[in-house]
Amino acid sequence: MQTLKPPIVRPDRGTYSVLETVNVDTGKRTVLQEFEDIIEAPNWTRDGKYLVYNRNGRLYRYDLTTRDIKEIYTSFAIDCNNDHVLSSDGKSIAISHHTSEDGESRIYILPFSGGEPVLITPMAPSYLHGWSPDGKTLAYCAERNGQYDVYTIPVSGGRETQLTNLPGLDDGPEYSPDGKYIWFNSTRNGLMQLWRMGFDGSNPTQMTADDSNSWFGHVSPDGKRVAYITYKKGDVDPESHPPNKQVQLRLMSSSGGDFKVIAELFGGQGTINVNSWSPDNQTIAFVSYRLK
Q1: How many domains in the chain?
Q2: How many angstroms separate the CA atoms of 244 and 105, rounded?
Q3: In sequence order, what are the residues at sequence separation of 6 or more whose Cβ sits closer than 8 angstroms to the Cβ of residue 83?
Q4: Is residue 5's pLDDT more than 70?
Q5: Of the candidates 91, 104, 114, 213, which lies 20 to 30 Å from 146 by C-alpha distance?
């Protein structure tokens, strides 16, 4: 049976976006700004100065001190989804852009200051999620031969390497800060759960095993904790992460074990698709939504 990643479902046009942060220890939430349209997937720059998010297919940089917003020039890549990832040195950003030729998602790299995107994955669809700490490799979810699995590829392009190959959707691959592991989410055992494997695909280990659908495990910069989003069982198909649902942001040790809920909100798709930890390991940036 073929496993097909559901198409991205955007939140309703009649939705407000709320850019927020939450302190992972105290649970205190802070609203940074509200938008009258859809923004998605903030990630924090390594210097702690900016948040980067996507809006209507383009990327923007939000200054956390001045609250000024500036578009990042991406040339022809103006149909970006919420899979952007920053390099460890902060000089480059990788994106997933839906090409005009066939509408499929492919991965590109461009300077963080803006510039011409360079194609990395000619094969499609490919959905970016991770960049290795040494800056040499990208990890992504891709459909090949009717099944979605985790792949890696050198940042210079070339031959991709398949790391998973089991029935069920494998998605959201992201490197641990030490580069030893790739975290991902998978439905191979039924519900969507978080998994961890070696950077080369070895020793896949299930890290969550509760009665919910868990997505997008993001490891803190110090490697000690993992933030992720969950949907209630029955609210969604396990292979789908739609918008406009009551969801939880959770926190767990990177070694596994019990979790704690750090926020409950109306969101889902677009909330924390990419790693949004602050550099000091204390805060998560995310997007919640309100229907107009």
Answers
A1: 1
A2: 23
A3: 41, 95, 96, 105, 127, 128, 129, 140, 273, 274
A4: no
A5: 213
150: left (phi over 0), alpha (psi -120 to 50) or beta: beta
Please provide the average confidence, as pLDDT, over all residues in the chain: 94
| Structural domain boundaries, residue 252 | 15-291
Check if the beta carbon of residue 233 is closer than 8 Å to that of residue 4: no
Q: CATH code at 37? A: 2.120.10.30
CA distances to 99, 112, 157, 221 from 137, rounded to whole Å, are: 22, 17, 9, 18
Query: Measured between alpha carbons, how far is 121 from 137 in angstroms, rounded to an integer?
Result: 12
State if pTM tops 0.85: yes
CA–CA gap between residue 174 and residue 194 (Å, rounded)? 11
Q: Which residues neighbour 156 within 8 Å (Cβ) at sequence distance 6 or greater?
A: none
What are 197's strand-pairing partners?
A: 182
Is the preceding omega at residue 125 within 30 degrees of 0, hence cis?
yes
Quick check: is 6 in a domain? Answer: no
- Over the stretch 26-68, which tens digit does the pLDDT of each residue have? 999 999 999 999 999 999 999 999 999 999 999 999 999 999 9
Instruction: Tell me the C-alpha distance between 288 and 220, whole Å.
Output: 21
Q: What pLDDT does 4 receive?
A: 43
Residue 31: exposure state from Cβ atoms within 10 A (0-12, 13-18, ≥19): exposed
Query: Is residue 259, in this structure, part of any structural domain at all?
Result: yes
Long-range contacts of 179-185 (CB under 8 A, 24+ apart): 179/132, 179/133, 179/134, 182/130, 182/139, 182/150, 183/207, 183/217, 183/218, 183/219, 183/226, 184/129, 184/150, 184/217, 185/214, 185/215, 185/216, 185/217
- Report if residue 10 sits inside a domain: no
